[in-house]
Specification:
By secondary structure, the protein is of the alpha+beta class. Among the domains are: 69 residues, 3-Layer(aba) Sandwich (MutS, DNA mismatch repair protein, domain I), CATH 3.40.1170; 65 residues, 5' to 3' exonuclease, C-terminal subdomain (DNA polymerase, domain 1), CATH 1.10.150; 111 residues, DNA polymerase, Y-family, little finger domain (Dna Ligase, domain 1, 2-Layer Sandwich). It is built from 15 helices and 12 strands. A 5-stranded mixed β-sheet has the order 5-6-1-7-8. Helix 5 runs antiparallel to helix 6 and helix 13 runs antiparallel to helix 14. The radius of gyration is 23 Å and the shape is globular. The N and C termini lie far apart (54 Å).
Length: 378
């Protein structure tokens, strides 16, 4: 049984790049202060509770040699590193500015462009290179040279017949790497890699797969798809099967920036206590609602975010059929989302946030209500 969405011939016409800016935050700091280049550099998210409280966001490759990785506590990173290590707070405004300039360079070389993070973007270059991976290699080299010349940063690029393969390829050679996987190389490229290389295979899923005897992507490709569906459900089971054989039909498309109002804050202590989290979230709801009132906006979507103790970021959202601007609706929804989230996660939260989006002008919202009432009377 197979679950191909398009014919193989159609897939073979695509040439996709994933451009990944190397250790981006730390590299930005090295660019800003060249004297840091020969030192371990660690960019941190400080919690504010004490001088060493918080976690590592990004480390340069010198620091990584000592075992400093994203998510570990700052105090542990300091234990691992020598005295000449440099620890810096995140400077989001600066990183966003640099990212924006680089994304403009990347966009100029793409038929279709999709930014997926501050330091990552997909480029569909199929038309530009006429389906040729040789021409794609030349284009990738040109992109790397432009980024380095204009922004003094390196990037790693993966090229493949789809987004899935390009993403994995970009991680193979870092920093400043270029990995090309042609259509006929997909199986041999994916097969020996650990199954954790696939998006969606985290620690829990990896352990579950190991109990099934699945350790590599090749093992997963050989595994019975019906059994995968029984274990992981239809959606995930089919996804794991398709991903293991390099099938990914998702297109590269612009993600329109959704305007939103959000607030995030650090908790007094790491916790899973719903009461404590909701108390902080309610304060954030008050701040968000004040902005809504000021801008005369109603909203249809509510989201929450939680930064966990391992610095992973989790989010949940809910969209209403009709817009509202009620503070109580916002608080009730946020509480329900956090309650559901805590039932699904075993980790403690360090920071929590609230976001509203999908806006409707208050005048328009009132007009919709009036129209509805008029229709109801009729």
């Amino acid at each position: 049984m197979t679950f191909f969405i398009r014919e193989v011939a159609t897939l073979q016409a695509r040439v996709i790049m994933l451009v990944d800016l190397d250790y981006f935050f730390a590299q930005c700091e090295e660019r800003r202060n060249p004297s840091l280049k020969d030192k371990p550099v660690v960019v941190c998210v400080y919690s504010g509770r004490s001088e060493d409280s918080g976690a590592v966001s990004t480390a340069n490759y010198i620091a990584r040699k000592y075992g400093v990785t994203s998510g570990i506590p700052i105090f542990l990173a300091k234990k691992k590193l020598k005295k000449d290590a440099v620890f810096l707070p995140m400077d989001h405004e600066f990183y966003e500015e640099v990212s924006g300039k680089i994304m403009r360079i990347l966009r100029s070389h793409a038929d279709f462009f999709e930014q997926v993070g501050i330091d990552e973007a997909y480029l569909d270059v199929s038309q530009k290179v006429k389906g040729s991976f040789e021409e794609a290699k030349e284009l990738a080299q040109k992109i790397k040279e432009e980024v380095k010349a204009q922004q003094k940063l390196t990037c790693s690029i993966g090229i493949g017949p789809n987004k899935l393969v390009a993403k994995i390829a970009a991680d193979i050679q870092k920093p400043d790497g270029l990995t090309i996987v042609k259509h006929e190389q997909v199986e041999s490229f994916l097969s020996p890699l650990p199954v954790s290389r696939l998006i969606g295979v985290g620690r829990k899923t990896k352990k579950k797969m190991q109990t099934l005897g699945i350790r590599t992507i090749g093992d997963l490709a050989k595994y019975d798809v019906q059994r995968l569906i029984e274990v992981f459900g239809k959606k995930l089971g089919i996804y794991f099967h398709n991903a293991s054989i390099g099938v990914d039909d998702e297109s590269v498309q612009e993600r329109g920036e959704v305007e939103s109002i959000s607030r995030i804050s650090t908790l007094k202590g790491d916790t899973r206590d719903l009461k404590v989290i909701v108390e902080k979230a309610n304060q954030l709801c008050d701040e968000v609602h004040a902005k809504l009132v000021q801008r005369e906006l109603g909203f249809k979507s509510v989201g929450i975010v939680a930064v966990m103790v391992d610095m992973s970021v989790r989010s949940r959202s809910r969209t209403f059929e009709n817009p509202t601007n009620e503070l109580e609706v916002l608080k009730k929804t946020v509480k329900e989302l956090f309650e559901k989230f805590l039932n699904e996660s075993e980790l403690e939260a360090r920071r929590v946030g609230v976001k509203v989006s999908n806006f409707v002008k208050e005048q328009e919202r009132q007009k919709q209500i009036t129209n509805f009432i008029g229709l109801a009377k009729n």
